[in-house]
Amino acid sequence: MPTSNTPIQYSDLTEIEHDIVRSSQTGNWWYADPDASFGPALGAGNDSTRWDVRAKVLVQLLTGLDELSFDASGDARAVRAVRVSGARIVGDFNLAGFKLRCPLEFVNCSFITSQPLDLSGTSTSGLRIVSCSMPRGLNAAQVEVNGNLDLRFLTSGDVVDLSQAQIAGSLYLQGSSLRSSGDQSLLLVSAKVGGGIFADRMQCRGTMDALNLQADFLKLDGAHLDSEGSTAFIGEGLRLQGNFLARQGARFDGLVSLRSAAIRGHLLLDGSSFNNVGQTALDLSNAEVSGDIACRAGFLCYGRFQMHDSKVFGSLQMNGASCHNPGDLAIAFDRLQVKGSWLCRGGFFADGTVSTIDAKIEGEVAFDAAVLTNPGGDTVRAERISVGASIFFRARARSVGRLNFSNAQVGGSVLLVECDLVGAADQVTCTLNGASVSDLMHVAPAEHHGVIDLRGAKASRHKGAAGIADRYQLQGYVYGAIIPEVPTVDLRNRLQWLRNDPEGYSPGPYSVLAGVLKHHGYLAEAKKTSIESQRIRRARTRGVRGVVSRSWSFLLRNTIGYGYKPGLAFAWLVITVAVGSTSIQLLRDKMVAGSGAPPFNSLIYVVDNMLPFVDFGYSKWVASGLAQIVTVATVLCGYVLVAAILAALAGVLRRGD
């Protein structure tokens, strides 16, 4: 027999090798077992040497070096295709750098070799290695395939290297099981695939590296990539013309990185799981997705789901998803841009913070029926988020922690109704501090423990429930209308809403409510609101000064309604004149006429003395005894009431009443 370095001669071929040569001349299959069925690799268990084929025979047959293809007369014959099923291929299989003269197909074969199957730099019109066993792996870096590359049900004990491969058709990896002696099990670095990559149910023990890969689409439905504690999938710079699919129980143990990826179709992750506890599990930062991102029912993420500075030109659908990273960021979508809506409804669950700082969502943001938990911290951290439509937190959605929408810009409404906001009694459970809402602000939880912060917020309309007992921080909160309107909701309930502010009294919220009521024609209710504001303001003073202040407040409230009811002072003035004149008339005998005094008239006498700016001459009448006391009392009351009337009128003019 020839040595390993010398070419094999036609005369040295075994009977099986002769059969393979003859089959290759017609392009037909050679079967070790004609009844062998297509399916998962069986060659790994074939230890019989009965079906041994030397690798060098196949190399010579495929390249034409040291020709082995002859007819019966000894003339060379063309080789149409090498198609082998069920053989044990023995020896190093090295086609590196060759241009194969025909297609190559192996099915259910096992490679008994000390080196990886070497197809690096090889050029061929078609390549199939299906249900085969390669204990040493496959080196097909820079391979050029003008058709499809089919590696279905491949079992590899070491890395499969397709780096910089050029595949005109599709790449098939369904059902393959790839292991590695190192960190990486599948390399597709800078590969270009004209069609799609089918890797359904593929199993990789080690990293799948698809850095800068270009393909039509990538399908990983039901696949399992296991690189626990390391990186399961590297897709940084990935370019897909179609979809990225990882559904139907796809599982990734370790980091999945799609940083700076560009996906022109959809990113569909329904029913998949990502596991990298305590670290980033899925990273889509700086990525662009032209369609939707779907992480719906059954989607599980243990570790951080990160998508900073990314752009999604469809919608972000996370209905029924479950994200776990307790005490840390469960979702980190800061500066994310979404052309459609972001939907986290129907059983969405997050254990940890959902962060969308400075994000821009052109559609709606919906957390209906979601459960968010991060006790003592933010469940949602959406500071400065911009939402083109509305924000929804309804249908018994539950937040254990704080919803933080500070300085949010909302083009529609904010509806946090029939939900549960749970926190400590003095803890802010929802903050919309500084938020701007173009339509309706309705924050009315069904169950609430804590404080709702609306300070500095703006809304076109505010809606509140009748008799609501929740505590709101309202300083600086401005709204153009309030619904339901009076009298559907009693003014006392609105005033109680203002009094419940845990920061205590501030005139601003009362002024806003009074202004809204006045603008919509409820003048009496507006005045009552302003009067209540003045009453509370003056009642807050304590000590001796407080007694004086409360006394003065009592006088102002009951005489002129703190300037909002000047007509009340006129009534008191009339009563004082009537009582005073009647009393003086009864005490006529205590009145002594002075020189030049006019005829006595008790009514004119009282008016003359009460009003400092009139003089009817009745001051020449001198009172004595009890009449003098009545005169002094009416004069003092008159002066006070006149001063109050003038002050009230001045106040009315300043307020524009």
Q: Could you describe the 3D structure shown?
A:
The protein has 657 residues and is α/β, with parallel strands linked by helices. 21% of the residues lie in helices and 33% in strands. The chain is built from nine helices and 58 strands. The protein has a 29-stranded parallel sheet that branches. α4 runs antiparallel to α5. The radius of gyration is 44 Å and the shape is rod-shaped. Mean pLDDT is 86; it is low at 37-45 and 652-657.
Give the helices and strands, then pairings.
Elements lengths: L14 H12 L2 E3 L20 E3 H9 L18 E4 L2 E3 L13 E4 L2 E3 L4 E2 L4 E2 L2 E4 L2 E2 L3 E2 L4 E2 L3 E2 L4 E2 L3 E2 L4 E2 L3 E2 L4 E11 L4 E2 L3 E2 L4 E7 L4 E2 L2 E2 L4 E11 L4 E2 L3 E2 L5 E7 L4 E2 L3 E2 L4 E11 L4 E2 L3 E2 L5 E7 L4 E2 L3 E2 L4 E11 L4 E2 L3 E2 L5 E7 L4 E2 L3 E2 L4 E11 L4 E2 L3 E2 L5 E7 L4 E2 L3 E4 L2 E3 L5 E4 L4 E9 L2 E3 L1 E3 L4 E6 L7 E3 L4 E2 L2 E2 L7 H9 L7 H13 L3 H17 L3 H17 L6 H21 L4 E3 L8 H9 L10 E3 L2 H30 L2
Parallel strand pairs: 1-3, 2-4, 3-5, 4-6, 5-9, 7-11, 8-12, 9-13, 10-14, 11-15, 12-16, 13-17, 14-18, 15-18, 16-19, 17-20, 18-21, 20-23, 21-24, 22-25, 23-26, 24-27, 25-28, 26-29, 27-30, 28-31, 29-32, 30-33, 31-34, 32-35, 33-36, 34-37, 35-38, 36-39, 37-40, 38-41, 39-42, 40-43, 41-44, 42-45, ...
Antiparallel strand pairs: 57-58
General shape: rod-shaped
What class would the helix/strand composition place it in? alpha/beta
Specify the oligomeric state.
single chain
Unreliably modeled segments: 37-45, 652-657
Total count of helical runs of at least 4 residues: 9
**What summary fits the major beta sheet?**
29 strands, parallel
Helix share, percent: 10-25%
Q: Using only CA atoms, what is the Rg?
A: 44 Å
The tally of beta strands, per DSSP, is 58
Cα separation of the termini: 117 Å
What portion of the residues fall into strands of 2 or more residues? Answer: 25-35%
Q: What's the mean pLDDT score?
A: 86
